Structures are given as structure tokens and as C-alpha cells.
Structure prediction request, 368 residues.
Amino acid sequence: MASLTEFQLPPHPSCFGDPTNTSSICQAPSAAMIDFLNITTANVYLEFYCNNPPSDSCAFGFCPNPDVASPAVRYSTYFTSLVAAILVIYSPEDVISSFFAQLLNVYSLIVAAVVSIMGHNLTKMHSVVALSLAGSPLSLYLVVYVFLSILGKQTRLRTVFGPGMHLNRALVLIVLPLWISLFIFTLLPPSVYQFQQAACDGVIGDHHIHSLFFMPFISFFMVYPHAGAAIIGSLLIMWGIAILLARKSIWGEENERFPFIRIWRTIGQRYPLLHFYSVIVLPSSFWIFDIEVGVAYLSPREKFTPTYGQLLAIFVTIPPFIQLCTLVPGLGRWFADLWWVRLLTCRLTKRYSSKEDPTRAVLLGNKS
Prediction:
């Protein structure tokens, strides 16, 4: 059994921590009490420092926030969004559970950020990380599909946003004003609202936190103009060639100048790899590049720790992973029917028909 002396360590006055007694003896820890904490290494000191970092000091940079910016949270969000985007484009029939996993990710990031900001427990940098993770290309696609569904348009996500799916539509539309409101709030000057570790906004971010997350790829093009020109130029050339080759299917006998929707659907059907690159690879690469550059520059001490938020982020990836596995059997056929593969193998017609496997028709590039 523990002795009474053990419960009295470290040595402290009996009134210590009593909110009704404002005496310095009762409120300020003594040197013996601080020594008792055994702060003998830099890592231990930083842990104590980051439990309640001062707003007027940035001696050690931004303190890590693993539930917002750790590798587990970031990579989980990337994976969930990418898989859901692939399902939206190529297998919309299987997107339902991934849709809710994506919503869970977005809502958890935004709501957690709002709650933490209200308690002055979140830095501006981590607020922008949460906004960046929530504002994935997939989130934008979902908003667009909701508006198209409301306007009565037929979309590939009719199983999620079709007639009668009012709750699903509302869940997506509610996120949009929340995201915009939080973004505007993070733009407020320190004189209006001070985020946690406000001093770091000027010392490290030079009060340009947002630009470090929303403009790195623009800076990349400025620093490496030849690489940027090659990326954009190759994309324009590929689309130009694809439109030229598919011009009869796009225009036919109609005189419409630039039927954007028909061009988009036709290219998606005939050249699915170009469609995949334009819709998923390129936007997602920019999105991930932006976030990783910002975190690496502003908060390099972010690391994985087994907290509830990080473990939840990992488990959220399970449904998308299972659904991604269901697409694996069709990848070989999808690849074999790509235009450039058929060109190299001297095969002009597609080998596989979507009728063989209706649930994989989009993956095989035979259905819009």
C-alpha cells in the first residue's frame, strides 16, 4: 500500500491549486515541484512547453498537432479522397460507403477545427492544414455533382445524389458554407482574433500562412518554369490530339461550336487514361504537394503518435481500401483497352465489352 508520503510528493503547500486562494505560494509551482517533473531532455521540455504554448513566443516554432497534421491524418485523408475520386469516376455504383468515409473525414476536420479555435487551442497554421485537407479535389467534385443533381441533370452519382437523396445533398451543401466561413475567419488580423501561438504567424509564416498552403505549385512553376510549361503543355497537347481524333464522335453533323459536355464525355469514354490523369492525378498531385510543402516548412516536427484521432483516421481508410480491391480484377482489361496500348499492339477495336461486366463498364471506358 502506498504511504502517505508518496501522495505528498512533490513537496507542495496544502493550498496549491486552490482557485479561491490567489496567493503566489498557492498558485506558482516551486523549484522543487518543477524539478520533480524530471525535465531532463529537450524532447520532454518541448512536450511540457507545447501543452500550453505562450501566444507571444515562437522560440521553438509551431507545436505539433498530431490530430490535425500528423502523417497518419494527412496520408489517410489523401488515400480516402483518391480512392473515392477513382470510384466516382470509374465505378460510381460502389461509391456509397466511400462517400460517407469522405464526409466523415471532412466533417471531423472542420468541426474539430471550429471547436479548437473556440477554445483558443488551435494555431492558424493548423487551421489552414485542416481547411486544406478538407478542401480536396473530391470535395469540389461532390459539390458540383450535388448542384447538377439539384438542377435535374443526370450524373454518375445518381446513386448518392439522385431523386430523394435529400440528406446526402444536404450533408455536402452544409460543408461548403462551413469551409468558407472558417477560411474567412482564419484571414482575420491578430487585432481581431489571436490564434494559439499567434507570434509564430509572423516569425515563421511572415503572416502569409495561406499562401504557403494554397500557392506552392504556382511558386513551383515560377522557380521551374520549364517543368511547369512541360506539364501544362503536355496536357493541352494530349487533349488537343484526343479532340482531333474524336472530332467525328463529338460534332457529327451538328454545328455547335464547342460542346463542352459532349467533349468531356467522349474523351472520357475513348481515352480513359487521359481522363484519369486530368481529373484525378494532376489535381490530386497539386493538392498533396501544396499541403506537404506547407507542413514541411511550417511544422517539421509533426509525427505519428497513437492518439484516438490518428487511429480513427487510419480505420476510416478500411472501407475505401476494400472497395478499391474490388476494382483490381478489372484493371488488366481496362489497361488492355487503353487507346495507346491498342495502338502499340496494332489492335484498333476494344477487346472487352462493358456488357460482360456491367458494374465495371466505366472502368473499361465504355460508359460515361
User: Anything to note?
Assistant: The first helix runs from residue 4 to 8. The chain has two domains: 4-51, 66-360.
